[in-house]
UniProtKB/TrEMBL annotation, chain A:
Membrane-related topology note: Multi-pass membrane protein
Keyword Transmembrane helix: yes
InterPro entries assigned: CitT-rel, SLC13A/DASS
A GO term, aspect molecular function: organic anion transmembrane transporter activity
UniProt protein name: Sodium-dependent dicarboxylate transporter SdcS
TrEMBL record, chain B:
Organism annotation: Planktothricoides sp. SpSt-374
Protein name per Swiss-Prot or TrEMBL: Universal stress protein
Domain of life: Bacteria
InterPro entries linked to this entry: Rossmann-like_a/b/a_fold
Length: 471, 148
């Protein structure tokens, strides 16, 4: 079974041989260079060629995402689209360092045992009936994903949910196991949209937005603008899980015994856990209060420095806990979007799209949201943002849409992949448990996709203007 | 007769076929659930890449998935023993942690007997077109039962 899930994750279903994929990538590059595009400068055309290759490779995962990023960093200056000085200057964007700081800060949360303690406390405190247990897994996953990368939360909670499911006597094919793992996956997917910490795609989008337009979205603004969607989707998700659970008889005695035993194993809260909790509260307070003036990345690095000075972070652990490829992928995506903007490639692409004859900003916004939601089902969240946002920002400029609104219109739907494990590692993790059949993910996930789309459009039209985002 | 199971979601078709054949012969049925550590390694690596998981999180996932899968395999084999007992068939069960291809080759080279392998279409295709190419003697003795 793992081989099947891995095959979904690794290579497009349509490309059976890698070398065919590389030929297609080269073909895309060549085609963009020879296509007639009147009025488009050579640099813009070269940049579009690199963009086409990057979107194809990110979309199909023919190469690991960071390797495609390196290819982009090579191709941009080598092809003559932009100078190497500009390429690497764009790479050193503030958003990249914010992502890095946030990832480093999540290390002591995971390593100190704080996150496990919180998880066990919540699940054992509130999970005394199956419906409440599922609700607590869903809510806990969502809340933790506000502070730590969603997929790290899924990896952390996976053993706990697995033990709970097994201790309840649930067997493969049983609905309790399915519902528990879907609660985990859906919880992290939905919750990760609440703050800039839940997924690195948020900071990536901010980096592209700032480089392209000079606009910013603060830590607090992000949460205020995204929160209603998160809350509504959590309610819908709980409703769906509740429906799925109906008629399933489960004894939680074993599960509660396991949770109690694990709680006892943890003992008293340690000094490291207390300091970690204090540092995280302080960091979030600083992000909210002075993030705009100091810079989110400066606050992140201040907290990282403090974490090492007071001894709650260890470099050896950080080296293991941070996936350093994220720096390459995100820096390169930002460099590519900046190059699209400065060479005029984004504008040229928009002109081509304008030929479709759509005149309504609302319709354009709806299409962009739908594209983000669709793309993210077939490629990673970050790749969907990197592929779509530069074009969406150029469209926003032409149609007079607030660039911050279109940024959220791409990045939040790109984080709402509920149907296929391709885009969402949390779903792949749930399927890998052996308790969740892939058809069940699609059958129930499509409801969240459709409802998420409608709720997002409604929120952007009627709620955002009330909280300072008119478009 | 040897039946190899690889997927906890779907194994009924192969199991029913094995029970049916075992009922026709006085053979003992052996059912092995193979957990392929290479497949797990690959999956966790891909998940790490897509989800930007560090090595620490990857290790947590790897260990707990493996542990969970051992328990699942034990559950499934218990089910197999129950079904075989109901059909009055003698059965031996085992959980094996080994790369599937290597395991199949070893078994066939040792016993030179046909075996039933239950799995997905993807597994059958990759096995036959990639891993077992050039091993015609092995391929001839493997009967793939593609589960829905």
């Amino acid at each position: 079974m793992w081989d099947v899930i891995q095959s979904w994750l690794s290579v497009s279903l349509f490309i059976k041989k890698r070398w065919v994929g590389y030929l297609i990538a080269a073909g895309i590059y060549g085609l963009i260079l020879i296509l007639p595009m009147p009025g488009v400068e050579t640099e813009a055309r070269l940049c579009l060629g690199v963009f086409g290759v990057a979107v194809f490779l990110w979309g199909t995962s023919l190469l690991p995402l960071p390797v495609t990023a390196i290819l982009v960093l090579f191709l941009l200056p080598f092809s003559g689209a932009v100078s190497s000085q500009d390429t690497y200057a764009y790479f050193g964007n503030r958003a990249v360092f914010f992502i890095l700081g946030a990832f480093i800060l999540s290390s002591p949360i995971l390593r100190s045992g704080l996150s496990t303690r919180i998880a066990l406390a919540v699940v054992s405190r509130f999970g005394n009936t199956p419906a409440k247990l599922i609700g607590s897994i869903l809510g806990l996953s969502a809340v933790l994903s506000c502070f730590i990368s969603a997929h790290a939360v899924a990896a952390m909670l996976f053993p706990i949910v697995l033990e709970v499911v097994r201790a309840s006597g649930s067997k493969p094919g049983g609905r309790f196991g399915l519902v528990a793992f879907l609660a985990l996956a859906w919880g992290v997917v939905i919750g990760s949209n609440t703050t800039l910490l839940g997924g690195a795609r948020g900071p990536l989008a901010l980096g592209i937005l700032y480089n392209t337009t000079g606009d910013k979205i603060t830590f607090l603004q992000w949460t205020i603008w995204a929160a209603p969607l998160v809350i509504l989707l959590l309610v819908v998700a709980y409703g769906l899980l509740f429906v799925m659970l109906q008629g399933e008889e489960v004894s939680l005695k074993g599960a509660l015994r396991f949770l109690e035993a694990r709680n006892n194993q943890l003992g008293q809260i340690s000094q490291r856990e207390k300091l970690t909790a204090g540092l995280m509260v302080g960091t979030i307070a600083l992000w909210v209060a002075v993030g705009d003036t100091w810079g989110l990345e400066t606050v992140a690095f201040l907290s990282v420095s403090v974490a090492f000075i007071i001894g709650i972070a260890q470099w050896r652990e950080v080296e293991e806990d941070v996936n350093w490829g994220v720096v390459l992928m995100y820096g390169s995506a930002i460099a590519l979007s900046a190059s699209l903007e400065t060479t005029g490639a984004a504008s040229a692409l928009t002109q081509l799209l304008l030929g479709a004859g759509i005149g309504s900003p609302l319709l354009i916004f709806g299409i962009v949201v739908l594209m983000a939601l669709t793309l993210t089902e077939f490629m990673s969240n970050a790749a969907a943002v990197a592929a779509l946002l530069p074009v969406a920002l150029a469209l926003a400029q032409k149609y007079g849409i607030d660039p911050r609104a279109i940024t959220l219109g791409v990045v939040i739907p790109a984080g709402l992949g509920f149907m296929l494990p391709v885009s969402t590692p949390a779903l792949a993790i749930a399927v890998s448990s052996g308790f969740v059949r892939p058809p069940a993910v699609i059958r129930w996930g499509i409801w969240l996709d459709v409802i998420g789309y409608l709720v997002f459009l409604g929120m952007s039209k009627f709620y955002w203007p009330l909280v300072g985002l008119k478009w | 007769m040897l039946l190899i199971l690889t997927n906890p979601y779907a194994y009924e078709k192969a199991l029913n076929l094995a029970i049916e054949r075992a009922a026709q012969k006085p053979d003992e049925l052996k059912v092995v659930f193979v957990i392929d550590p290479d497949a797990l390694d690959n999956l966790v690596r891909e998940l790490g890449e897509k989800g930007w998981l560090g090595l620490g999180s990857q290790r947590t996932l790897h260990d707990s998935m493996l542990e969970g899968y051992r328990a699942l395999a034990a559950d499934i084999l218990e089910d197999v023993r129950r079904l075989c007992a109901a059909a009055h068939i003698s059965v031996v069960t085992e959980v094996k942690e080994a790369p599937l291809v290597a395991y199949i080759r070893i078994i066939i080279e040792r016993d030179n007997q046909p075996i039933l392998v239950s799995g997905s279409q993807y597994l059958a295709t990759t096995m036959l077109t990639r891993h077992l190419t050039g091993f015609e003697d092995v391929r001839a003795l493997v009967e793939w039962i593609q589960e829905d």
